[in-house]
Amino acid sequence: MKTSYVPTSTSPRLRTGCAWMFALVLVLASCSDADNPSPQHNDPVITGEGTPNGEPTSALIGAQGGSLSASDGQFTLTIPAGALAANTTISIQPITNEGPLGIGAAYRLQPEGLTFAVPVELTFSYNAEMLKGIPEDFLWIITQAADGSWNALLKSEVDAGTKTISIETTHFSDWAAGKFIDLSLTPASSKVMKGDALQLIITGFSPNDEEDELVPLAPITSESDDLVPLTKIPPVESRIMTFKVKEWTLNGSAAPVSNSNGQLESNKNTATYTAPNKIPATNPVAVSVELEASNKEGSKLKYLLTSTITVVDSDLYLSVTVDGQTHVYYQYGYNGTIPPNGNDISIANSGLSDEDVLEIVGTRVEGNINLIDGFALAVKSPAKGTRSLVCFNNDGDDDMSFAIGQQTGYLLSYTKRTPIPNDYCDTEYMCGETSITFDEDPKDEEGYVRGSFSGKLYEDKTEFGILCKSPIMHTVSGEFRLVLAN
């Protein structure tokens, strides 16, 4: 999902007052009490507890106070003087983040149930990758109760300068960072056959209307033009903020629109995209919706949500995105498909060797001679589920590569180089952090292989070895739906 944030007024940094009321409202209702939506239910989100996911850290802290950071460096606990009456061993255990709309890791603070005479400060760090395009104003800190329900701290404070979220508390439990709302288009990205249609809908998530400091979290749904929380909205708050769908667009052209990029029809918070009968010159296409929030004083905030849609020739394909650029290869010869242009062919194939290695390849060739680009993936013992690729640098049998022309190659295996004194270069053989997901076991699903992958590939150059320079990192992601050729 790509979500841009365009503020037209200064945004508050505290999750109090109008800031959290905005999260509660998400309504296209008028200012009359009769137009306020009725609550559907008031159930908080309940999940299982997080599991340990990293090394714990601990320190002996006494009445003088002190601080302790998590082993991953993304969380810091600061205990002021007077918070503890005696020396106490404090520990931080990183755990999986099971919280609704959680970002990054969660942390279990121990001893469990410990309370403080003076509030302590919890500080979470975040980065752009965790945000995934959402505004920083949408962040807060959440905590899990003993019954598994999640509550949010309305006084969470975001510091965009230091990229941190902080809160004060007087007790220990499981804590995590999260988003108090998630406005997105569903699907955020998709593949669609030429001539086929795809429905898009705005989705969101909001807390309920409790006025206490801790607010239970509940999802929102809507079948109308309103994004309506599942919990009751006090009339006074619904007058403070409205949230409207302003416009749907296809590659910047307002709906309804029909051109070489396809057709887009909109109806309040949903839209239908119909792909053209030939691959558009700009592919993937972008379907966007502009949302506008405003209060009674006239201040406005705008949000642009975008879904990327790739139009494909065949329902058997390999899609590879490298550094934001998408390359699509097709498995012709099945389902009656043939290459539309014999002088410019992007073709994919897959097969399973006798050594139980799944190979997936994609190649684009121009004039049957010139290699434009190509992709290769090898996975030992493929099975349903998600796992990391283990390349030969780590004594594994997996591999992945991407090539541009005959010269440039990006590889999963690479050499990390570190200069040290006396003109010596320390080398370490590494494997790019890359994961793959198979939707089904390729050996069980009637010869089909479906899944996705994401991670990093590395581009090395001859002079990098002389200069003791590490390879250039490139991001890679993709998905595949292919027939096993053997």
Helix content: under 10%
What is the third-level CATH name, the topology of the largest domain?
Chondroitinase Ac, Chain A, domain 3
- Put simply, the count of helices is 4
The radius of gyration is 26 Å
3D shape: globular
Which stretches are poorly predicted, pLDDT < 50 over at least 5 residues? 1-42, 206-216, 218-241
Region (Disordered): 36-65
Organism: Chryseolinea soli
Protein name: ZU5 domain-containing protein
InterPro entries: ZU5_dom
Description:
This protein has 486 residues and is mostly beta strands. The protein is built from 4 helices and 37 strands. Strands 2, 5, 6, 8, 9, 12, 13, 15, 16, 17, 20, 21 and 22 form a 13-stranded antiparallel beta sheet that branches. Strands 1, 14, 18, 19, 23 and 24 form a 6-stranded mixed beta sheet that branches. β27 and β28 (357-366) form a beta hairpin. The model is unreliable at 1-42, 206-216 and 218-241 (pLDDT under 50). Residues 36-65 are annotated as: Disordered. Residues 55-181 form the ZU5 domain. Residues 1-34 form the signal peptide. It comes from Chryseolinea soli.
